[in-house]
Amino acid sequence: MQNEAGENVEMYIPRKCSWTSRIISAKDHGSVQLNVANVDPITGLYTGESKAFALAGYVRNKSEGDMALTDLVAKNDVKALIVE
Questions:
Q1: 82 near 69, Cβ under 8 Å?
Q2: How far, CA to CA in Å, does 81 sit from each of 29, 42, 46?
Q3: 19-39, pLDDT tens digit by residue?
Q4: Helix (H) or strand (E) holding 54
Q5: What pLDDT does 83 receive?
Q6: What is the predicted pLDDT for the residue at 81?
Q7: C-alpha distance from residue 14 to each of 10, 11, 22, 79 (Å)
Q8: Among residues 36, 32, 72, 73, which one has the least CA distance to residue 56?
């Protein structure tokens, strides 16, 4: 809900899982939100930007959190430093 000035005045705004698009409830204590930093591909230094990904407890319970995060980073073209 917004007031006359256009400011958001909701008390609680639920997050959505970046992988399954499920709403993450307030009681989902297994959920995490990770900020993946953008890295300059030439120097390998942090650029000051990051992208947030939220994973529901359901995904983590099914042991798919690593796969989900890897795929989300690849699909969103985040310039993360991948050490092989």
A1: no
A2: 29, 10, 9
A3: 999 999 989 999 999 998 888
A4: strand 46-55
A5: 53
A6: 55
A7: 10, 10, 10, 27
A8: 32
What the block records as the tokens of 69 is 């995060």
Q: What is the pLDDT of residues 36-76, one digit of tens each?
A: 888 887 888 888 988 999 999 999 999 999 999 989 988 88
> HSE of 20 in the Cβ direction (CA atoms, 13 Å)?
14
d(Cα 11, Cα 13) in Å, to the nearest integer? Answer: 7
Of 82, 27, 22, the residue nearest 56 (C-alpha): 22
Angstrom distance (rounded) from CA 34 to CA 15: 13
